[in-house]
């Protein structure tokens, strides 16, 4: 018995990728005028977009019927295989409902249909992950559960480069399309909860949408150390570390923000030299402009990996043989240090004491001072 993965052509998987993943793809019928095509059979993805660019009106589609699903399922069920079906989002098509209806014709649990809440690249990612789990030996139930969990974690965004298709689909008036094209408007659309949601680029920071971009909690944290003794010498080392998590580097944000007031000079991070300019158009940093109140505005631009490694302490000592002092006193000469070396994703950032990397939380952003000391220890 094996696990068979079936999806539809809304996944945009080409023939080579389908063979590599060993998945079945059921084509969705596409109508350009009176001409009907079946994706994956007599029309490739490249051909679809080529025909779309020349079409006078948007094509229409027909969802996969329950009978088509049933005919595709039956040979696998009879062969003893279990099936996981990953159709496009049920919010975008009735294909999901038709797959569920077809699955009901077979014993419970033999065909598992997942509402992927995805389409195109998002759906393709789910198919790839499902195929990887199958190849690793997972059963159909495990694959289906994993895909249900994954469906809520994928975020798909697209920039509409040409307003032509929004106008053809009736989502934008002809006048709006003309004005938007002249102004260079590039709407952003996304798939949220299985639905297409439209967004437009804003130039006002206060109108921007906020998103969750990770957690302050690390994946792993702990410490390690060692104690060594060789003859009369002893050595002790301790380290602590953290792997994962995010920290907002407010200190860096402040240093990279252009001066907005009329006050005197201010400290500036050397990275300002990497800002966008006519001679540096590939930069991912905004241009440096005096008075720009949004240059250092809070965004994921300043979210930084909170991983670190800290050389916490060491102690090195030498104990003078007791016979030197006729066993009357034990003398140990030692050197010790604390907070000796600290590594983090950005020099100067210490995520141990503030989730924001700033004193605004009431905790100093400065790392503990490095101390090195020495002495003589006498034991009578």
Q: Concise description?
A:
The protein has 380 residues and is of the alpha+beta class. The protein contains 9 helices and 17 strands.
Q: Label the structural class.
A: alpha+beta
CATH architecture of the largest domain: 3-Layer(aba) Sandwich
Supply the CATH superfamily name of the largest domain.
Answer: Dihydroxyacetone kinase, domain 1
CATH class of the largest domain: Alpha Beta
Helices and strands, in order, run as EHEEEHEHEHEHHEHHEEEEEHEEEE
Report the uncertain regions: 357-363
* Number of domains as seen in the coordinates: 3
Distance between the termini: 78 Å
In percent, how helical is the residue content?
10-25%
Biggest beta-sheet profile: 5 strands, antiparallel
Structure commentary:
The strands form five sheets. The chain has a five-stranded antiparallel beta sheet with strand order 11-12-15-16-17, with no helix packed on it. Residues 357-363 have low confidence and may be disordered. The longest helix is centred in the middle third of the chain and has 16 residues, at 120-135. Helix 3 (66-78) crosses helix 4 (95-103) and helix 5 packs antiparallel against helix 6 (140-151). The chain is built from nine helices and 17 strands. Strand 3 and strand 4 (35-38) form a beta hairpin. The chain has three domains: 3-28 and 63-152, Rossmann fold (3-Layer(aba) Sandwich), CATH 3.40.50.10440; 157-204, no CATH class; 220-248 and 305-379. It has 380 residues and is an alpha+beta fold.
